[in-house]
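Posting this for the archive.
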Amino acid sequence: MADDEQEESDAGNDDSEVTSDQIVDGIIDYIKKVDKSVAEVFKVIDLNSDKRISGPELQTWLKEVGIADLAPPDVMMTLGLIDENKDGYISLSELRSAVGEKASALGLLLEAVEDIVDSAVEGAKELVEDAKRVWDTEQSLLAAAFPNLPWLADKRVNRGIIVFSLVGGLLYLYNAFIGLAAGPSGSRDHSLDLTAMLIPGYDYNGYNAALAPHFDPLSFLVFVGLGALLFFAQYSTPPMDGGGGATAPPAAASEDASEEE
């Protein structure tokens, strides 16, 4: 038993002889030996992907790669040698500085492109989720505004409103900028003028169309109306539970009644 305790004591003394500087050197040697960039190793250490390495993350990684199994105080001491701004974390630039890797212009550009792509992917995912939520909604803003029309709270009706608004808006834009009507040359390069079609005397030498691009007041108002219809087809935010406020008066009344008894 005494020999075992002596061996454990000696092992503890050996671990204590490993200084923080040696641990940092071990990190640098490891990064230089593996066929990866500092940024790639940084991502591996950064377990929660918050773009900074904490003490527990560094401790876990050092143990996994076999550099050292350090106690929390020793880990923080090692981290402090790399942490230049003393915020308690290691950033990518600080790790690069410790390793001595110079970030080339191409490397920085690639990292910037990667960040942009990641942001675009996340934005696309959110857009798809929102579009699906709008497409499947039953309680739209329009249905909430007219509760006496229960047929509006039907997702099939709401989908019809969405399709109608989108198709109508696209037709307006195509007609205004490219043209739906055929001109004297036979090519469809004239915009139908809804104002001229519906208001007598408001025409162009007997024609209800003008050379595109052309914008008439009534068509524009219809376009705005379609846009408003599309906006009100989106989902309505459910009202917050106001039960507490509604039940307070009866509770107070019951208390008063009990006091009177």
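The longest strand covers residues 190-192. Strands lie at 190-192, 209-211.
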